[in-house]
Amino acid sequence: MARDRRADTSLNVRPNATACASLHRLCLALESGADRLKDIAEIGTLFGQLSISGEYAEIVRSYISSVADDPVVKMPAIGKRSVVLFRNSSFSLVLQGICKKSKHVDGFDPTILATVPENGMISVISGGENLTLQKYEFDKPIDISIFDIDVRLRKIEGCSSLNHGKIVEYDAGNVMNIDVNKGVSYILKLSETAVLPFQWVIDKQSLAPMFPCATLAAVTRMETLVDLSLAFADDRLPREQAIALMKSLLRHPLHSVRWKALQGLSELDDGSTAHALECMSKDPHPHIRAAAQACLAAD
């Protein structure tokens, strides 16, 4: 089925082709049918022109005017320190605020790093004098879907200041850290909506991987369904239906969901766990094979 690349019609404000020429040109390019930023001709130039033009302020002014007219107007494009300027099934363009936060604010922990789950680019539009960028690289090539506690990050020499209009491109799987010295700074972020299914969380001091986590909503939805099925089995959900769910998810394309399903099946203990373990001992993912083989050996 063809992907719908039209802009999200839930956004309150659309760029005016005259007042926001740079933003309009960029939005047209993002609606051209490409799925990846690198497939759009001169995407960096278009993004840079928008950053320098300041036209995003016109969108902000439009929202402010809307509130003046109706204080309770719904604005789905505005989130916490963020405004969505454009979004379709392939790309999103966001004006985003970043600030210096303590460990206990918004669940943010300054002691960790994480791999970036998507391709994209950023440009500072205010407060660049307060920002520094540090990039990292792994000490050997990695497959982000196969977590490896033995690899290490290393700093790429030299931090760089994020001056106004400077564009920083990044690829899925990269690791970078933006330090905010004070206050709130704002960036433009253009990114692909397609993301890697997992990212690694990394200790900032030792530069050692700590654990992988899912980035796709599909993973958390399936894992939640498994948990709910276990909680409701024999009470609000027929046991046979819960078992059928687990067996179905054993064929899920994401390995973390397959393993979650196997764990659920073992808790329901319907007698098929041993057979499922035998099958998973030949799973294409090395983590699943190793875990299944370890379970079989323990029995």
From TrEMBL:
Superkingdom per UniProt:
Bacteria
Enumerate the SUPFAM superfamilies for this protein.
Answer: ARM repeat (SSF48371)
- Gene3D superfamilies, alphabetically? Leucine-rich Repeat Variant (1.25.10.10)
Q: Provide the protein name.
A: HEAT repeat domain-containing protein
